[in-house]
Amino acid sequence: MTTYTKVTIGTRTVFVPVEQAPQPLPKPAQPKPKAPYAKRIGKKYGERKNWW
Length: 52
Description:
By secondary structure, this protein is mostly beta strands. It contains no helices and two strands. Strands 1-2 form a two-stranded antiparallel sheet.
């Protein structure tokens, strides 16, 4: 099956693309799962190593 139609205008031959059926929309991506809690590694500046 060709995707072009042959059209002759005067002495010139032009190939015109055939109309395509509309394509279905892609499904939206699934949202990524959230982490159960924030993972913090190390300590911030000025933070004690222990709580006491």
